[in-house]
Amino acid sequence: MIENITVLQEILDDLLLKQTEKYCQGHVADYIPALACIPPQLMGISIATIDGNTIGAGDYRHPFSIQSISKVFGLTLAMNRLGKPLWQRVTMEPSGQAFNSIIQLEWEKGIPKNPMINAGALLVSDVLVSHYSASKLAFVSYLRKLANDESIQVDCEVYQSELSHGNRNAALTYLMKSFNNIEAEVPEVLSHYFTQCAVSMSCKQLSESLLFLANKGIDPKTQSQICSKKDAHRINAILSTSGMYDQSGEFAFSVGLPAKSGVGGGIVAVVPNIGVICAWSPPLNKYGNSVVGMNLIAGLAGKLGLSIY
Ligand code: DON
Fold first, then answer.
1. What pTM was estimated for this model as a whole?
2. What was the pLDDT predicted at 24?
3. Of 133, 158, 218, 307, which has the maximum CB count within 10 A?
């Protein structure tokens, strides 16, 4: 796919140029007030390959709030820690509902549909809080190791903003606790979850840190086994069916890559055996997915024929 880096660079530059005005079609997330002031016109895209190249265009080195993209890292850690029993507490089915829906959780007796919706990620946060003596530190250290970058930080303003506007996430966690599906104290679970959502990373850092998912669980930069080959397949399967929330079907139909979005405007997409794409532009569509980010990834996947289907 990436035989010619100069050609790929031209493709990325061209895709970005075509999106210059498109950011106006979305709305920056303002339910987390600290996210509302991010300049909407920022945009970038990068692709990291398992053979060691990273190519980017636009603001691809600019850190942004990773938000729900953190759910991929949290899930990987929890699968490593808990193994099979994790799947008794959260299932792997698409939800077909908004990412923060409460109705479904009551209906499913406190067992979230999948780890990519908020309820599922709060459940995963409970696993991490219960299995690490300092889960927040473990999470951030994990990201620094995967990105090979010690500068990665939690944005304290975003953290505080989510903490003070997190009533819906608190409601989801208390509801799960009422069904005995949360072990730790709810405030501790929320604090971990908001910390992982508030991490700032760039497209470059994100695409490089998720390479293990494109490479059978092995980080090609260090050759370390981040998760088993089987778990890499499973995580990619969950990203394919649930990573783009209730737009996952459309994304599979039109792009055909395992992917995860976040309300900070980032989207990561795994191209098995090749690499990881990350696109960022803050304005979102009604599902909570970046408008320009979707266009950029769809454009690149279409141009290079990347669909896995
Ligand atoms: O809990 C929340 O609502 C946010 N911290 C994360 C949501 C999110 O990124 C959903 N993404 N599309």
1. 0.97
2. 92
3. 158
